[in-house]
User: Which sequence fits this backbone?
């Protein structure tokens, strides 16, 4: 057969090899992602944050690094404004900043928005804060209610960051009750609180406000702590969801744990606790789960988060340890596990998954554990905020991990390669010894 006869055959085989290679690469890379259609999507709503600053008379106290509380807060505000992420819409509201009299009724209406929520003019915002002087009462509840109105409605979560050194002196409205009312409305609103005074009554009030809306509480005892935490909270606005995660209560064992469908969930976990959940997974499906624990209070540096998937009988399937994302206020980890065709069936027939869950099949137990230890004086209750993301998708063709037990050909090749390497090494060693002796 001459070359002209062989060329079509060679071209055909070459094309087939290329096509096979492309198909193999696609398979190894996993399922092809689904793309949205060509219709133009509306632009994503930018993060919206309202900073609420207490400017009442107690902010004159000079007990933070030898400086007044208001000067430390002003410095922190200035640094945060300079470091704002692009696209952030920021507003600033103050309370107790203007009325200097003794009329409580009038003083308890003293709250103003000094910077409207929107794209930030950094110079204007810093100047507005720099001119504040501690003056009046502390209407925290009213300020929170007005701050929620300032932020308006929207599809993404909005955040209020409250900085105060004292409890509300004007209730009603009680600030904790205001936070509960805002949460009950179903608005995508989170309130984070920063306390500037080591006072137990203030701490309890700020914890209540934060817990009611899924936010965090932090006691800032230095200018550096206040600045760092404020930056983290403003920056976190970029990581919010289009909908508020569903609240769920994990249990202390797999049996009877809540059965979860794909979605995002929130829970709270105390120090060194284990929280259990269950997820139905059918053969041919892959479970993907991740968890984040917010460090909303001082902890010792020897911390970590562990997420494990186990079978109903307690056998561990896979685990993921803390991922080290670089953030100091959140520790995260994740895992993946595929259900094989021979996966055992769950015998718990009375369990009913939440809406959207797959039919009964293998039930995987997810357990979230933490190895946090509190610093002296740190409260254990309420637990630290936990955010759990669960998804169940078609299993990837990629293996879960090395599996030489099924790869007999690869195992045989490795054995032969080892024997051959040993033989060659032995011969070379004998030759070298014989040459050296001569």
Assistant:
């Amino acid at each position: 057969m001459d070359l002209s006869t062989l060329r079509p055959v060679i071209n055909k085989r070459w094309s087939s090899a290329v096509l096979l290679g492309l198909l193999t690469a696609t398979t190894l890379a996993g399922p092809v992602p689904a793309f949205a259609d060509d219709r133009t999507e509306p632009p994503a709503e930018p993060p919206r944050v309202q900073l609420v600053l207490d400017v009442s008379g107690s902010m004159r106290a000079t007990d933070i690094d030898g400086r007044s509380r208001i000067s430390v807060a002003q410095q922190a505000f200035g640094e945060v404004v300079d470091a704002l992420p692009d696209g952030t819409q920021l507003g600033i509201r103050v309370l107790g900043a203007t009325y200097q009299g003794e009329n409580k009724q009038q003083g308890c209406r003293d709250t103003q928005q000094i910077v409207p929520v929107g794209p930030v003019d950094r110079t204007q915002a810093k100047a507005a804060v720099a001119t504040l002087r501690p003056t009046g009462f502390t209407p925290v509840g009213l300020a929170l209610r007005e701050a929620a109105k300032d932020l308006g409605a929207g599809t993404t979560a909005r955040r209020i960051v409250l900085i105060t050194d004292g409890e509300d002196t004007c209730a009603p409205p009680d600030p904790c009750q205001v936070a509960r009312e805002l949460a009950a409305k179903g608005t995508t609103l989170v309130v984070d609180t920063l306390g500037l005074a080591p006072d137990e009554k203030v701490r309890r009030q700020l914890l209540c406000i934060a817990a009611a809306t899924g936010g965090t509480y932090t006691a800032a005892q230095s200018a550096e702590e206040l600045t760092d935490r404020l930056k983290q909270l403003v920056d976190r606005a970029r990581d919010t969801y289009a909908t508020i995660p569903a609240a769920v209560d994990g249990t202390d064992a797999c049996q009877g744990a809540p059965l979860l469908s794909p979605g995002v969930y929130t829970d709270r976990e105390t120090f060194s606790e284990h929280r259990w959940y269950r997820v139905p997974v059918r053969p041919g499906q892959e479970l993907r789960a991740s968890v984040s624990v917010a460090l909303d209070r001082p902890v010792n540096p020897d911390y970590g988060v562990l997420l494990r998937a186990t079978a109903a009988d307690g056998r561990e399937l896979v685990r993921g340890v803390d991922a080290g994302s670089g953030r100091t206020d959140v520790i995260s980890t994740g895992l993946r596990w595929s259900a094989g065709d021979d996966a055992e069936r769950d015998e718990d027939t009375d369990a009913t998954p939440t809406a959207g869950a797959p039919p009964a099949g293998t039930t995987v137990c997810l357990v979230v554990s933490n190895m946090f230890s509190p610093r002296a004086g740190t409260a254990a209750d309420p637990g630290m905020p936990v955010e759990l993301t669960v998804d169940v998708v078609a299993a990837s063709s990629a293996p879960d991990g090395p599996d030489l037990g099924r790869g007999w050909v690869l195992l045989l090749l490795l054995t032969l390669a080892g024997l051959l390497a040993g033989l060659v090494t032995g011969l070379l060693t004998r030759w070298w010894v014989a040459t050296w002796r001569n």
